[in-house]
Amino acid sequence: MTVLVASDLDRTLIYSAAALALTMPDARAPRLLCVEVHEARPLSYMTETAARLLTDLGDTAVFVPATTRTRKQYQRINLPGPPPKYAICANGGHLLVDGVTDADWHGRVQARLADECAPLAEIGEHLLRSADPVWVRKHRIAEDLFAYLVVERELLPGDWVKELAVWAENRGWTVSLQGRKIYAVPKPLTKSAAVRELARRTGAELTLAAGDSLLDADLLLAADRGWRPGHGELADAGWSAPEVSALPERGVLAGERILREFLRATRTAAQGLPSAWNDPNERS
Questions:
Q1: How far is it, in rounded angstroms, from Cα 30 to Cα 47?
Q2: What is the pLDDT of residue 273?
Q3: pTM of this prediction?
């Protein structure tokens, strides 16, 4: 059986120092592996155990990183295990095959955005006008597909993101707050659409997924089986779905648990055994 495993990266499989959530005594903290360096500084980590699990997963399933990162940001990451043949960047706007953008897929995405959503220029202009420089640190346009702000969370007004989400909704866009970033993303720009395309190309009979943010909800719903960590937008909102397990782990240990679940489900499928997740008593 061909199994496709599509996973978000940041705060799902890899973690910045601020997101590690190492709440245990120092002497019991897990050993960490740096998987991203930016401007000569270590930036993202996973546990060494998670690195071994990901290597095993890459040998048994079609593993697909599915990230909102731009292609340039994604290419900074050096994951352990076999290099993924496929990767989803820019929230589905770019489908990479052996590191190269699939031009046909990108063209189809652009055509759909032009037909169904307000233009990016309108969204970017609104963000510039409405966001207060007191708490905004950066304005960014990503891959000419979506926009995001880098903000000081402690200074961000409580209702500003909700008001932005209402304004964006009427224009075919969605809003997501992830850490210090506020994303404005066209609704048709989804990881799930790209995953369905890859499932078709690979002939996958089972699709597994994981993610922590509202931008990952469609990905989780598109999979046969999904997991979300105990932190992030989905956890904060109490979001759930019938085939999605809400894990208790938070921080970098959640990434390790997700990879264990991926491997268990992949091996169960390979052996043709009954799916344990069909029993709700077996679900976390």
A1: 6
A2: 59
A3: 0.91
